[in-house]
Amino acid sequence: MTFSSGRRPWPLMRTGRRRTALVAAAMAAVFLAVGPSSAAGPVSRTHPEALGIGDPLFPQLGNPGYDVTAYDIALDYHRQDRPLDAVTTIDARATEVLRTINLDFTQGVVAAVRVDGVRARFVTVGEDLVITPSAPVPRGSGFRITVRHTSDPQGGASGGWVRTGDGLVMANQANAAHRVFPCNDHPADKARFTFRITAPKSLTVVAGGLPGQRVRKGSRTTWTYRLAHPMATELAQISIGRSAVPHRTGPHGLPVRDVVPVADRAGLEKWLARTPGQLAWLEKKAGRYPFENYGVLIAHATTGFELETQTLSLFERDLFTSEDLPRWYIESIMVHELAHQWFGDSVSPRRWSDLWLNEGHATWYEALYADEHGKASMKQRMRKAYGQSDAWRAEAGPPAAPKPADPGQQIGIFRPVVYDGSALVLYALRQRIGRTAFERLERQWILRHRDGVASTADFIHLASEVAGRDLSGFLRPWLYGKKTPPMPGHPDWKPAARESTKGAALPGARTGRHAVGYTVPWAVKPG
User: Fold this and answer.
1) Out of 155-159, 281-285, 341-345, least confident range
2) Which residues have C-beta within 8 Å of that of residue 388, sequence separation ≥ 6?
3) 111 within 8 A of 85, measured Cβ to Cβ
4) pTM exceeding 0.90
5) With left for phi above 0 and alpha for psi between -120 and 50, is residue 126 left, alpha or beta?
6) How far is residue 399's CA from residue 280's CA, in Å, rounded to a whole number?
7) 480 near 400, Cβ under 8 Å?
8) What is the C-alpha to C-alpha distance for residues 402 and 390, in angstroms, rounded to an integer?
9) Do residues 52 and 59 lie in contact, with contact meaning Cβ atoms separated by under 8 Å?
10) What beta strand segments (E) does 258-307 contain?
11) How far is Cα 506 from Cα 484, in angstroms, rounded to an integer?
């Protein structure tokens, strides 16, 4: 995710027992990391209650007791100001005996629920849909939940659906997918997705993944899309509107399709044409692109940010039509979201406090691209970030232990410390182990954890393995310390005087697309 200028926001697919064990281990790791909580008790209860897996930043997100393997989401769209009729089908496997099953869901009306085809009782508790099947689900068994519900686009201010000039798109980060469809809304439980969207035939529907069958019946068309790789719920994307869908080819024949307002297709082409080259550049840095296709979705909407939805990144139209932004800067923001396809989408955070692994890496490649293709020095950017790092840590916590966001401000976790403050950690690591070892680590990180989830501890372990020595004593102060450690190779770098950095402009800086009230420390090279 990157934030808009001057705005303040509100190995291949594992299946069966092997994947269930991995996801169960991931969920268990969250419990072990945070300790027991009221949200993480036994799954058999006398009275329905809202649950969660105890994530430090979003304790009520996710649900214990099962692993989702697949979602099939059918939506019926008429107008952007009217709730969509929906059927969400969830295939899962129980990791415990389940007498009740919790799903995250709000901002919709549930009409009926079935478990393995049999009607089930249900009740809404907080933002949980609590389901009581007709018989307990045995541990280790697969089961299917079918929920008939509505999906209301009217509450987009809190995430989920976003209304565009002529339709809808999604913006589910960090905890808003369950405002669109019932789910286990935590990145630790990734699954395959199929979308089936019915809309007026005059509109174009595009979702993440590859297109399947398209069926027209009377005045309406049903579009089908499937993702070939598992995805976290927060990365789902559907676009409905009057859109053009230009196609082109990326490296090694990769299909690239973009989604843009029909009226803007010609004007946006110069930006869309940059994607294949950006893909090739990132493949040289991080390895082969991890998914089946890619593209950018440019929406006529005001979100305040861009978003790395899987295989189809979301961008505001204004980013590309503004006349006061240099070309290299816009391209670097495109690279930021593209880098997330490796860091954040293919390898997702085990818990939300591992967010620095997503945003730190995306910011790293954004800055590296700007350094190589534009007029922004990576070294100077990191030096400026170093000067502000102590203040960022004081305000928001260290990179790998961020403070929770204010209530109702789910994207408040996206602060400067997880952007440039975390890219700074990567810069320090490269300084310590050298460029060759660092670049090998980046590629190994994706190969080791592709299509899965990973934690800060996993990164420290792999960095130590690649470097051939224990780096925990070096990395832990950088990731968890209240103060920023000395920068290797730069003894002259010093923290700036202690003061709040919210909204503080830097000389030559452009107010940034990175965090609330944060200005990006661009250092402009002469000439």
Assistant:
1) 155-159
2) 416, 420, 421, 495, 496, 501, 521
3) no
4) no
5) left
6) 29
7) yes
8) 13
9) yes
10) 260-261, 296-299, 305-306
11) 20
Q: Is the CA virtual torsion 487, 493, 495, 500 positive or negative?
A: negative
> In whole angstroms, what is the distance from residue 153 CA to residue 199 CA?
15
The three-state secondary structure class of 352 is helix
Sign of CA dihedral 177, 178, 183, 184: positive
Side-chain-side CA neighbours of residue 183 (13 Å): 32
Bridge partners (DSSP) listed for residue 124: 129
Q: What is the spatial distance between Cα 360 and Cα 365, in angstroms, rounded to a whole number?
A: 9
* pLDDT grade for 156, boundaries at 50, 70 and 90: low
Q: What would the pLDDT profile of 62-105 be if each residue is shown by its tens digit?
A: 999 999 999 999 999 999 999 999 999 999 999 999 999 999 99
Mind listing the pLDDT tens digit for each residue in 224-283? 999 999 999 999 999 999 999 999 999 999 999 999 999 999 999 999 999 999 999 999
Does residue 484 come out as left (phi exceeding 0), alpha (psi in the -120 to 50 range) or beta?
beta
Q: Please give the DSSP secondary-structure letter assigned to residue 302.
A: -
For the beta sheet containing 118-119, the strands, ordered from the edge strand earlier in sequence to the opposite edge, are 118-119, 110-115, 142-151, 84-94, 66-76, 192-200, 220-226, 210-217
pLDDT at 504 over 60: no
Written in H, E and C, the secondary structure of 130-179 is: EEECCCCECCCCEEEEEEEEEECHHHHHHCEEEECCCCEEEECCCCCHHH
Which two tokens mark 148?
Answer: 């008939």
**Which residue type sits at 464?**
S
Distance CA 413, CA 415 (A): 6
Q: How many CA atoms lie within 13 A of 279 on its CB side?
A: 25
Sequence-distant (≥ 6) Cβ neighbours of residue 426 within 8 angstroms: 360, 361, 364, 438
Alpha helices in 239-274 (DSSP H): 265-272
Determine the Cα–Cα distance for residues 340 and 342; give it in Å rounded to an integer: 5
Distance CA 47, CA 61 (A): 19
**Helix (H) and strand (E) counts for the chain?**
11, 27
CA dihedral 87, 115, 159, 51 (to 10 degrees): 170
Residue 104: CB atoms within 10 A of its CB come to 26
Whole-angstrom distance, CA of residue 27 vs CA of residue 342: 22
292: which 2 tokens?
């089946």
* 488 burial type by CB count under 10 A (0-12 exposed, 13-18 middle, 19+ buried): middle
Instruction: Give the helix/strand (H/E) hosting 520.
Output: strand 519-520
Tokens of 371: 């350094």
Q: Count other C-beta atoms under 10 Å from residue 288's C-beta.
A: 15
Residue 280: is it exposed, middle or buried by C-beta count within 10 angstroms (0-12/13-18/19+)?
A: middle
User: Rounded to whole angstroms, how far apart are CA atoms 327 and 58?
Assistant: 37
Which element (helix H / strand E) includes 437? helix 435-449
